User: Fold this.
Amino acid sequence: MINFSSVTRLSPLGLVMSLVAITTYAQLPSPPDENRFTKSILTEKLDEPMEMTFLPDKRILFVERKGNLKTYDPRTKEVSILATIPVNTKYTNRQGQVREAEEGLMGLIADPNYAKNNWIYMYYADLSEKKHVLARWELKGDELVDASKKVILEVPTQREECCHTGGGMVFDKAGNLYLTTGNNTSNSNSDGYAPIDERPNQSTWDDQRGAASTNDLRGKILRIKPQADGTYTIPEGNLFPKGTPKTRPEIYTMGHRNPWRPTLDSKTGYLYWGEVGPDASKDSERGPRGYDELNQAKRPGFFGWPYFIGDNKIYGDWDFETNKLRADSKFDPAKPINDSPNNTGLRELPPAQKAFIWYPYANSPEFPLVGSSGRSATGGPVFRKADFKNAPRPFPDYYEGKWLAVDFMRGWIMAITMDDKGDYKSMERFMPSENFSSAIDMDFSPDGDLYVLEYGSAWFRGNDNARLVKVEYNAGNRPPIVQASADRKAGAIPFKVAFSSEGTKDADNDALKYEWKITSKTGIFKTLADANPNVTFDKPGIYKAVLTVTDAKGAKNSRSIEIKAGNEAPEVVFEVTKGNKSFFFPNEPIEYQVKVNDKEDGSLENGKISPNQVAVNLDYMPDTFDPIEIAANYRTTDASVRFNTGYKLISASDCKSCHIIDKKSVGPSYRDIAQKYKSDAGAVEKLAQKVIAGGGGVWGDHAMSAHPQISTNDAAAMVKYILSLGEKPLQAQSFSTKGSHTPNVPQGQNGRGSYVLRAAYTDQGTKLLSPLMSEEILHLRNPSLDPAKADKTKGSELLITPSKSFNLIGTDSYIAYNRLDLTGIKQIEILAQATTRVGAAGGIIEIRLGSPTGKLIGKSTPVVVKDPVMGPPPTTNNSTAGGVNAQAGGNAQRRQGQAAGGFDMNAMVRRGAQQAVAKIEATEGFQDVYFVFKNPDAASNQILMSVIAIQFQNSIPAQ
Assistant:
């Protein structure tokens, strides 16, 4: 704040300078009020949307991963499928396991001259060959002209192991097309660090053959100029001049893991994109923890992966054969060398460019505003007002030249400011009270509105919250901000729903009028003027409830909700009947039972739902888990049990009188049917209708009987089972719905992970309504908790530099965790330090229930003040790497983590730490647990101790 009283004491020159400073300070631009921006949901319940583009007639095109090209028409507010592109969506590994892939229909863009040529470009995974394809089509109105297809570019790939596809596209003013390509490299054996496995037959795990190869198109941003005849030319100024041996001239930038949505600054020509990084959560001898990046390229270059990340943090040259670092193991950012046997490109690479912005799972000291949690940098557009000369409502001048970038996982949009040289200057939250989670694409429309395409919360499936969102700027009267909700969205008839407009508001404090319009395929069901009406649905069907709110000046906004009447969602319960419900302990069994009840289908208990129709997963989740791989496993299991539903329906029908699985009978074998329709994207719908209506002439003279009593959904389930017989058997098997399971830490894992227990059931739907899926997920934590991730704290301080430390300051400071099951917990071990270097006071820790002054159930041994431990870090014996100590309790996991081989980061952090042990009074059930730090002799601002970990133990280790 300026101190105006000091102005009178300045010299005349100082007075002038101060007044100039005050004037400049007062004129600094400030962001517009957040309520000048209106976020509205245009459409929901999309099926894995990937990328969007805008057409001159105001329509918005977008693609979905499984192959749909769709359009949203703002005039009719309707979504239509224009075409379905046959694409691959599966990986098949060496063991024959078929899993859902990250690939499919991945990218879309309209030609800059679309108004004249009607061209659109799509990037997709070829249905049969192992390659990704960039192709061009003509779109005439709503017709994608199949005969117009021109294959422009092909990128050879592998389809054994997940992941990373890219597919983002942008055109520059000269008509050059930029295309992001993922590295197509597995990270499954690198513990979240650099995948540089050079062993024979392991090239799929070696990104030196992809992202770091100058002769491979994967892990790149390509720049080409498409030509009218479907070919392309190479523009001047790419990374490698055309004709350079062992290089691809299409490469603009390289060294990318998973570059996502690119954008260009129309004024500077600088390229910006989001870059999804690896999963390691801690620095180790193998290299740095994982970072996501928001990147800028002022010119072509090498952006480091897999040798460097962030601000050129260096990975070690890891020998996957010996599980050790190679001699002279650090790569040099100034002179990167790719000497992998899998490299087909140049050995000497261009100097590595640092990331523009980088951040880990934890808090970022360089960019603290990005926060901490899961991460998946998407990117977004750079705003230049000159790009929207005739737009009715462009964003205000405040955002001129700023990059609006979004993170898929964290849900924020950052407005990033650059200086005159284009270098990073600052960032701030855009619309900080809003969440834009699962944003997979974001761009400005020609009208100047910001559009966000949101994938939804669950991988590899359509989501209710997969949607297209528009953000409008309004310099005048602000329309209402509408919230609409329902207490129930599906149920058996008669079905009573309480609708609510709670949260709706108007920034100008205008009087508001409410209208709920409820429609179905048959027309308007009800129109109501109440803000919070109750409605009873007595006829089955799918209804759309639209709440429109209008202010006193006529400005309006809407939200919609889909209601399914006639099919109650299943109830799924996953119960741990014996064992701790908060923690898992290696090699100690838990007993469980899954309960499923569906109003229409029956229940597990009465036998109308069979156990093989319920997906049950019990999975170890490493601390470096890849959520996409976890989701792929769940998707495979769900598909497997869904096929069982189809098999059950077939067995109960007359199908078996004409068909056999693998031999021709009166009709063709199911395997022959599966083979015939293997590449037909519309086979499920087509064959389901044939099951219902009957038909003949395809396989011979014998006609198939009609089955009008079978619902469309049941017929589809039967067809999906038949078509599954043409694929390799699904390997991800569901566990039993009742039993005992002994959690273990898989070979090679560090023991710091957790366990996920999941049950899911998809009902059979009805003739009018599609099936509904319900699931319950129990997350059993690792018994070693991170104090920095406590639910509540008082007097805590998290320091990240020069090293991470979590300090408790002053007596009666505390940390607390909500709802921990203390059943069977015998003692708690707190790993802590109190050193003379920071003037710590030491103390004891009390464990209390419910509040800092609640019931005392344990008290730790003292943490005493010691001098800091100096000297080299400890090492461990590599021979026990990956093994699990058979002794029960959380100690086994801790010991396994310490035996992970070579240089031990955990051991280094724990040097000089003390084990403060508190025996616990026997306590049952879930409790809010408080750790209260005590030393009445400490000053109020004095550090008592630094806490490293809190270990819950269900046995008392032998001394």
